[in-house]
């Protein structure tokens, strides 16, 4: 029977984190958009002020991947803030390598995240899902997630660097 | 003529910020949805690890020049995109109605843009309710793009009840 454990990421996990980030980006057809480096992941996640936190799923040696990887999944999260209710836990990225799915790793990661959210007094957990990603939508809805974009009309907007520069220097 | 200034919030601003948060909620017909207290705002924004940052907009009292009062705020924090790194996330942005149209909003956005660039953020992100046409048009004029429409992103939520259930499974 497959065994695994979920634990907090450590600085030495950064190469594996980047590998899995790239794998997930490839699945989302956004591989060439990954410009982050191992050095930035290290500074941003394990410096004095972490901008993100990570949980990783680790398997014992006899279950290592064909390329001898022991880290087979990760979840990246951070804390956001709602001015009406306070702290929220935001799940930024969540990925388990294809050959390790269906073993309960995803559910165990979600359980860990839920416990973290409750412990840190977060009112809820938010995350984005692409509307074409039906397996993920089913996974989350089965567990009780609601689609706030459909229910309440929320849309995510972005102002890119070019326009930020324009606004920053306007008279 | 009204003159205003935008400055970073201090712990002493928490009562005023909460007052504006509740005013905004009342305007949206959900005043009881605000369960946050001044104590929460103080601990969460001015403790060892801030969970949010705030800019406040102040206007001078015409009769007592040395007194000023808060007429707006913008709440933001930093988020992280594992593909590109740090982003500045604009959580809330409100200016009292009598003080709209005076350039306070533009000045706040200018300062937020400068902050984003100074802290090496790749972009600024925020949520808008799609049927809030004035806000949608305002942000589009600033050069914003709607990622939900362009890339299909939907915001999902696990509420507190669901989190408790999953935590105990």
From TrEMBL, chain A:
It is an enzyme of class 2 (transferase). One of its GO terms (biological process) is spermidine acetylation. This is Diamine acetyltransferase 1. It comes from Dromaius novaehollandiae. Belongs to the acetyltransferase family. GO terms for molecular function: diamine N-acetyltransferase activity; spermidine binding. Its EC number is 2.3.1.57. Homodimer. The lineage of its organism: Eukaryota, Metazoa, Chordata, Craniata, Vertebrata. Residues 4-171 form the N-acetyltransferase domain. It comes from the Eukaryota. It is found in: Cytoplasm. CDD domains: NAT_SF (cd04301). GO terms for cellular component: cytoplasm. The gene is SAT1. Pathway: Amine and polyamine degradation; putrescine degradation; N-acetylputrescine from putrescine: step 1/1. Keywords: Acyltransferase, Cytoplasm, Transferase. SUPFAM superfamilies: Acyl-CoA N-acyltransferases (Nat). It catalyses: spermine + acetyl-CoA = N(1)-acetylspermine + CoA + H(+); an alkane-alpha,omega-diamine + acetyl-CoA = an N-acetylalkane-alpha,omega-diamine + CoA + H(+); spermidine + acetyl-CoA = N(1)-acetylspermidine + CoA + H(+).
